[in-house]
Amino acid sequence: MVQNPHSVVNRKMRCFLICLAVLVFTVVFASCNNSNAIKEIKVGLHNNNELKIQVDVLTASPADVYAEYWEDEGADTTKQVSPVSKNTDRHRLVLCNIAPKTNYAYHIITVTNGVKNISKTYTFSSYDLPMFLQDQFTAKSASEKHIPAEFKDGLMLINKRYAPGVAYLVDYKGRIRWYHMIDDLGFKVINFTKDHTLLSILGRNDEPTSYGSEILEINLLGDTLLHLKKGQRDFKQTIHHEILKNKEGNLVTLFVDQKIMDLTAIGGSKQDTVNGDGIMIMDNTGKQLYKWSVFDVMDPLKDRNLLKTKKDWMHANSLNYDRDGNYLMSFYNNGQIWKIDAHTGKVIYKFGKGGTITMPAECNFTQAHAAHINANGNLMFFDNGVEKHQSGVFAMKLDEQRKASKIDLHIQLPKEVFNGRMGSAYMINDTSVLVCCSKRHIIVLTDRKGVLLWTMETSVPTYRAGFITSKELSPYLKP
């Protein structure tokens, strides 16, 4: 990545200032000889990230150490607390929830044998975001009073899919509150896990839009917890569109399954290749634990359009879990959502045109993305609306026993934000839905009637816009 020369100069100046601060601290603490005395403090950026400050603390003997920090605007400012570094004399404290260009005060707290000591108060100033991260998001609302409190009390998860890849956590004002960047790969897909980590598929710019060949898991401190690359152990396939964890903590993803077939009967070659989709589970080392393929349950030769679609026959675009632990899998090319038995691989139902569940006439969706079970227990998905050239959102009450369904929620979005590819829709509360219209570079918050309460233009066509609550982000970030 080409660096701005001014940025390079600024970074050198930062390093100089940091070194100067360390020298001063070293002199100040040199005469301390208490058992849990602080000998040295170094302050700098964590992983070269302007929104994370790293404080390295050296104590005279092993101790528990943490930092309390606050915006330096007065004693009544809310204090934030870093994670605790336990029973060592070398401590790395990472301060998150940092705002750009802001003055902060902090002190270091040491605890040894139950005795707590608080250092004097020190200060630092955070830097502005790099130019390439500024003006990425523009949020608008006719009236802030129409924005639900629940939406203000959380952050949106957004990804830049081409290199340099960036994962963002953004608040309702369009401010970047957290980010993580990778120079030579894009964040093709990203999800927030039950372990409060960010799990993603990484891919090169020359790989298709939501396809990749690496899996990365990081925590909210920005530290790498897992990094798998195609070719390690059983990880041989190209993966795409989804990466999850199951309840055992294993990796669950979609993969491209290639099948060599004789297509001469329909005008193809004797050794033709059909690209289908499958579900694969791997452990954290890349060992395959389970594999399912669409070829297990469907014969491609029954598809009249196979010669046109063989390079991407079904185009699976999302994978999730039903409440009973079975899979929900959406396909773009046939416009269906399948429920698949996670143990036997049998298709339990097919929802959509030509499916096994009866639909109301009003449920005329064409192509779906981000299929999942919402908080009300209903099947929810983004309707691309390709045929009618109008996108929307559905939440459906399904009766699997009677093979019937009825509409719980149907939102028709304004035609100006029609989004024929990609997209997502997630409930914020019972009355509002966060909708991502990827191709239009816009994310909207709408009520159940389709009235837009808030909009945010994005500089990047993010695949989805997830929402993470304040509770899930604690203690690292506070919206």
TrEMBL record:
Please name the SUPFAM superfamilies in this protein's record: Quinoprotein alcohol dehydrogenase-like
Q: Which domain of life is it from?
A: Bacteria
List the InterPro entries hit by this protein, alphabetically: Arylsulfate_ST (IPR053143), Arylsulfotransferase_bact (IPR010262), Quinoprotein_ADH-like_sf (IPR011047)
Q: Which UniProt keywords apply?
A: Signal
Signal sequence residues: 1-30
> What is the official name of this protein in its record?
Aryl-sulfate sulfotransferase
Protein's organism: Mucilaginibacter sabulilitoris
